[in-house]
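Escalated from tier 1: iron/sulfur cluster holo job.
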Amino acid sequence: METPAPTRALSQFVLKLHSRCDLACDHCYVYEHADTSWKARVRATPDEVVERVAARIAEHAAAHRLPGVQVVFHGGEPLLAGPARMRRAAAALRGALDGVCALELGIQTNAVLLDERFCDVFDEFGISVGVSLDGGRAENDRHRRFADGRGSYDRVVASIGLLREPRYRHLFGGLLCTIDVENDPPAVYEALMALEPPRIDFLLPHATHDVPPPRPGGARAPYAQWLLAVHERWTAEGRPVPVRVFDSVRRMLRGGSSLVESIGTDPVDLVVIETDGSFEQADSLKTAYDGAPATGMDVFAHSLDEVAAHPGIEARRQGKEGLCDECRRCPVVDVCGGGLYAHRYRTGSGFANPSAYCGDLMELILGIREAEETERENPVSTASGQQPQHPLTEDQIDQLAAGHGDAATVAALAAEQLEITRGLLTAVWERAPRDGRTAAVWRVLAEVDEAAPQALDAVLAHPYARTWARHCLETGGDGGADVTGLAEFAAAAVVRAAGRYEATVRVPVHDGAVRLPGLGRVLVGAPDGEDAEVTATADGFSVSAAGGTVRIDVHGPGDARWHPVRRVGPAGWSVALEDTDRYRDAHQWPPVPRQDEAEVKAWHEDLVAAWDFLGRELPRYAPGLAAGLGTVTPLVPPGDGSDVSGAARQAFGAVGIARPASPDTLALLVAHEFQHVKLGAVLDLADLYDPQDTRLFHAPWRPDPRPLEGLLQGTYAHVAVAEYWRAQARRDVPGAAAPFARWTRETAEAVDRLAGSGSLTPLGERFADGMARTVAPWLSELNGV
Ligand code: SF4
Ligand code: SF4
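Tier 2 regenerated the structure:
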């Protein structure tokens, strides 16, 4: 069964809690740019507006079965709403979404009024706090001033001091800095870093072609130069915190998704709710013309489905198709995406233009790409001469150590896995026979990489690419290496690159079929070892062999000879149900053969329900799973009714599972196995223990002693298992209390054993500490503390 076409849901909401501000920044797009709608707005958002917003979001999330939504309190200055109103707003949202989907709550504030009363509300409702600050005192106070001209720096830094106290530290979400190219970039960066933020965002000041950005001295791309100077310092320091604009470009260069609205072609699914309940498009449009963000809709009269269909919101969900011709032809369009929508505005042509920052965006992307290539070729040549031991940030390590890892963290692991697989592909090629055939295949791979790198990345992100490559390298030298995989991967890349690159690839037939890794297989009726030719077509692809030609129209009616990998699960988190790849037998238990439609339908329904459970009951795991789990490989059930599942170090992004009796158990198996997937990816990057230690250790849950890595893997997996049973116990599921108690105590015992092994590296100790901190409150619950 194919997954239904994705519905156009909205999942990010900016909720204005106050329409005025206690600062008078001269670069403010709310009060100082074209739009003047703020003048007519009610000041503080009435409770009935917030309650209506909460009900609208809940209704929308339930209808679209969203795993989670994000709501950010905004303004003007949201703290002007006061702690009591803020508390009511957070309670209304949490109450409405409880049991519907995960809710990520945040606030973006100038922090002038921040005090303990607000922090206690943030703590109670888990509200992450982003603070706007433009650098040190001199840089910040250039623009961010009170109406009487006083600078705001001292007041804001005092508030950040409160957020840095241990009791509130977990609430500190990061710093948002608007760029002024007159400020010294390293000085701004160091001033921000001195406040130990968990994340930094840099914002281009809003501008259009009508009101272009300031370019002092007529410089061509001063914003790119400014950001690249910061990027150089940040890279030299080992990327100590996530910087979203840099992380987004790096991810997009590797075919990943963007983390910010201002870069990339990902659809924007964000809507703003003003203090009077009006729905508006992104705030940045205030810079274009008076009334630009308006939709004419409000929370009382309109649903979020109606808002999602508004032409202005729809226009920002068109991806590359929605860009002007110049952008569509641009060599960096897949990363840039035309920049922020508002920045494209010009009177007359509207938004059908490249960004007013076009030159800066081009130079920034090329500059980061060049720096990445230099770093890859010469990994010890950074300015400080120091390399981080691993490419994860401190925050990402702490997230993973605690057992979870958000979407960006798991995406970072996936990007590193892709690099490993690329390296293995090259190693296979180097060992393959030096003949014209291998050379032709390698040329196709290199050309696809040039013309459509995302297509090759998508092929190499297939979990069993690495399994195949390792198999080749381990069996190479005796003539048994399955180097035909090179041609299979090249053919799959050509099919994925259709429209951007054309070639015909000769692929040897194997088991009567042509394998297209990650896509499926075509039964060609030719003997093994004979060649088939794979060519992309306008509607799909064709495979020609001695037995004839099979033409696959990927949008048309099915062909019994084409066994596509089917996607199952809910929109927004569908996974490949892999039952075609001959390298999928990697999960300790044998995989099932091709599944019939009834079984695929059952998988689909169970995964929809399992994902619903994960989003609702294990919200700390759901974003990482959504970002990293791409494949489920069905395994043969054991026949005795027991549950079977497995993960493989060589198959990132896949779990093997025999479909269990209930979706809840499926959720448990998915969460459990994905712990192994994450930890395996971490172990590919860094040592957590001394590999020379060959002692065996007893894990509390099994009779046979295990090597230290086995104990570590089991413990990490059982953190998720204990959390699953805790969620079930809290829902009063009969029989859940006992496994919650058992797995919590045994996991805590295993963590102690790891910590006491004397063989953990400092990073390994950090993982043990993180797991201990996660489990400790559950032990207290069990002990009635
Ligand atoms: S703090 Fe923000 S909303 Fe207030 S004036 Fe400054 S930029 Fe505008
Ligand atoms: S760099 Fe310029 S032309 Fe290229 S996609 Fe971005 S805005 Fe468009």
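Residues 21, 23-25, 28, 30-31, 75-77, 110, 132, 144 surround iron/sulfur cluster (ligand 1) (CB under 6 Å).
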